[in-house]
Amino acid sequence: MKACGIFMKFPQPCVKVKFLHRPQRFLAEISFADGTKTIAYCANPGSFAGCLNKGSAALLWDSNNYTRKRRYTLRAVKVGRVWVGTDTHLSNRIVEKALQLQIFSSLQGYPSLTREHPFGKGQRVDFLLAGPKGLCFLEVKSASIMDGGVARFPDSVTPRGLNHLTRLTEQAKKGHRAVILFMVQRGDATSFSINSLRHPAYAKAFRQALKAGVEAMAFAVTITPKGFSSPVALPFCEEAVFERPRVHVQNISNK
C-alpha cells in the first residue's frame, strides 16, 4: 500500500520524540531531543504487541494546555520503516471526513450524519447515518498490530468491542443496516483478519454478526509525520471470515 498524498493532517503542533515505555495502557513515557522526559496520554487500550519498542521514534501532539492532566498525546510510533498510529480517536476522524466527502461508495446516499448516537444502555455508536435508504449504524474499530502482512483486530480482550458487536447484531435483526469498519493505521498491511487467538469470544460474536446481516469492511491508511493518506480497502483473509461470502468488503470509489 502506498500513500497518495495527505488526506488528513495530524493536529498541530506535532513533536518528534522517542518512545521509552508504557507504564500502563493509557500512558506512555517519552523522551524529547534534549533528553527531558514526560508521561503522555495514549488514547488506545490495546496491547500494541510488537509495536512499542524502547527508543523508537514517535510523534507527540502538544495541546499547549498547561492545566490539562496530560499535556501531550501519543499519535504514532515507528516500527522499522513504518509509522503506526496509536490514537484510536483519529480513526473516527478519518472515517468522518471520508463519509463527508462520500468516498466510501457503499456508504453514499446518507445525507444525515450523527456522531456518538445512543446505542443501548450506556453505549453509543460512532456514527448513525440516515437518508432515503433508512438508518445505518456504523461502528469504527482501530487496528495497529500485524503479522505477516495481515492486520489483526483485536490485539487484546475487548469487552467493549464485544458489546458493540452485540448491539450491531441487534440492529441488523431489526432490519436496519449495521456496519463495522476496521481502520488499520499503518501502510504495510495487505489484508485483514479477526484475531481469534487474542479474543475467541469476539471472533465467535463476529461470525454471529455476519450471519445476522452485519457488514464488515477493512481499510488502511499510510502514515507519515505530516498525516494520513486516503483510506484504501483491504481484503479479509480466510482465517478472519470463516464464511467468506457473508463478508462485505467495500472498495473506495474513484471520487
Describe this structure in words.
The protein has 255 residues and is α+β, with helices and mostly antiparallel strands. The chain has 2 domains: 8-83, OB fold (Dihydrolipoamide Acetyltransferase, E2P); 88-246, Trna Endonuclease, Chain: A, domain 1 (3-Layer(aba) Sandwich), CATH 3.40.1350. Helices cover 18% and strands 38% of the residues. It contains 4 helices and 18 strands. The chain has helices at residues 88-100, 159-173, 200-212, 238-241; strands spanning 8-9, 14-24, 27-31, 37-41, 57-62, 72-79, 82-85, 112-118, 124-131, 134-143, 145-147, 150-153, 177-184, 191-194, 215-220, 223-224, 227-228, 232-233. Helix 2 (159-173) packs parallel to helix 3. It is globular and about 60 Å long.
The number of distinct β-strands equals 18
Put simply, the count of helices is 4
- Straight-line N-to-C gap: 18 Å
Query: What share of residues is helical?
Result: 10-25%
Q: If you compute it from the alpha carbons, what radius of gyration comes out, rounded to the nearest whole angstrom?
A: 18 Å
The largest beta-sheet arranges its strands as 4-3-2-5-6-7
Return residue spans where pLDDT drops below 50 for at least 5 consecutive residues: 240-255
**CATH architecture descriptor of the largest domain:** 3-Layer(aba) Sandwich
Overall structural domain count: 2
Task: Specify the structural class.
Answer: alpha+beta
Q: What's the story with the biggest beta sheet?
A: 6 strands, antiparallel
Say what the CATH topology of the largest domain is.
Answer: Trna Endonuclease, Chain: A, domain 1
The helix/strand series, from N terminus to C terminus, equals: EEEEEEEHEEEEEHEEHEEEEH
Assess the beta-strand content as a share of residues: 35-45%
CATH class of the largest domain: Alpha Beta
Quote the average pLDDT.
Answer: 89
Shape: globular
